[in-house]
Amino acid sequence: MLDAVELHMKLPIDVWPQYAIMGTADYKRRQEFLFKDHVMKFPLPGTVDTSARDAALSTMFMHRMAHIQQTVQLQGVAVVDDPRFLYLYDDMRFKRNIFYWRTFRMNDLPPEIITHIFRIATWSTSTPADGTHIRLLLTWVCNKWRRLMIEDCTLWSAIWFRDPPPYERSLEWFKRAGGAPLDIRINEHDVDWKSKDDDWRYKEDDHRFTADQMEELIDKIFTKVSQIRMLVLVVDNWPPALIVLHKLQEAAQAGNVINMERLEIHRMGHPFVWLGSGFELKGRSSPVVLFGGQTQALKYLCLSGIHIDWNTTPLNNLSTLDLRKIAMNAAPTLDRFREVLLACPRLHKLSLDGAGPQPASRKPDHKPIDLPHLKVLIIGDFSVIYTCYIFAQFKAPNIRDLTLMNLNNEDYTPMIIGLTGRLRELRLLTLYTVNINPTETSKKAMVRFLYATPYLSYLRIASMKWHVIETFNEDPRDHGLGIDPATQSLSENRIVLCPRLQTLEFQQMSGKNIAEWATTRKELGAPLKRVYVNSPYMTKVTAPEANMIQKVVGLYVAPLGSTTPEERELATRDDYGHLV
């Protein structure tokens, strides 16, 4: 237990053992090893009195945590951004907790308090796989914990059908959930899906749902169709996806009440392509009317590679509309798309990734739709003309999180020009493979766009041409910006674009360029506070590059798909910057 990370504190960050870096798989494996090693070496709680030793070790690690905090306070700015102190502090906290919980009299608490603790433990996990594993672990501790766990229906209401057919475990959880609202996820497995509580020994290609297999499973699940609050389906081919849509329609037509608030259907196979003779499946014709028209409870709709009867399906008061990879001839018409936007005045998130309304001629009385509550916008995989066409359909002055992705093979400068001045409240900008030509006209357009986003504080980039990122450090005065209102002349002081930018997250970018860019920001008086690299791409950052970045700003690892603390904080602030 004493082979702690502090042994490596004098080493540069790039030569640390991998298990010392939070967010990596090695770090997680080390935590699991330490815990298992402790459990195996010590007697079961209650068999031998180790309370004095446990309390002493817990106190020792707590004192070490306090010492780390004091060291950081004494050394000040020299170490405040050094991630090694955070790693060390987290390591000490983990070890303290191992011994602290051995001395805590958990079973003396009232049953309702224990149940509440179980709920916090279960729903505080970062991934569905961890949630599954935690629930299993809690039922294995003792008879009392198992009884309390099984008696609480809400602990089993989130079910991920990821065990092998015939899904005995998932259906047992389905039974334990009783009358609680259900959150259900069904997906075919990929190479990363396996976890310790699963026993799936087939190859990936051996498990692709057929229409009959999906129908058999859905028939069992839909015995509680009115209890389903969320349904997420991830499949490869059309037939199982269409079966689910048809079954939802048939359940409503049979008189069942549909209370579903969130529906996600992802067809992950060939985009836009129908592999078969036609859109008819087992005597059922497509497209379907979603929920047979019972969509009054629906707040979150995500359709990827699949479509519905747009004209007949009521879509009102949505908070999220997420459309992906839908062929243009199967997409809603422009008039219907605008009707949906008008019917969702409090729309919070709009995502259009390779899916959008069918183009139509602009009417003489065309007026952009006001979306004052839209905070998150994702646009991807469109031509430059169609992208500008989409942006012309609505006004959303309060967007705080904008993602532009897979916009390549053309010069998207016209899109940047069209967005300039429309995103003053922007806080988080994501640029994934967005092509802007290296011309003076494009550079000026990009500078003007950034100049009009003064509150931007978080930048996420991937596979971007470096000349685009360099524009963040341009002098706006060189492009006619920064005129002093009093003198009507250019300001004498150097103006920094996006002066509140504090966090950078990157992948598939040059570490050397990132370090030089961060150095320039620091010299301009607008230093970054943190730089994150996504974990799968950490190995692509060389040791010299990591050292270069580390000399300027703290370098951290962000697991792919996770949200960083800074991103979470931005999501919890209101329009005035206060925490909500």
Structure write-up:
With 580 residues, the protein is α/β, with parallel strands linked by helices. It contains 17 helices and 20 strands. It has a 14-stranded parallel β-sheet, sandwiched between helices. Helix 7 links the parallel strand 1 (158-161) and strand 2 (182-187). The chain is flat and about 80 Å long.
Per CATH, the architecture of the domain at 400-580 is Alpha-Beta Horseshoe
Distance between the termini: 40 Å
Number of helical stretches of at least 4 residues: 17
Main β sheet profile: 14 strands, parallel
CATH fold type of the domain at 400-580: Leucine-rich repeat, LRR (right-handed beta-alpha superhelix)
CA-based gyration radius: 27 Å
Strand order of the largest sheet: 1-2-3-4-7-8-9-11-13-14-15-18-19-20
Using the alpha-carbon principal axes, give the shape: flat
What oligomeric assembly is this protein in?
single chain
Regarding CATH, which class of the domain at 400-580?
Answer: Alpha Beta
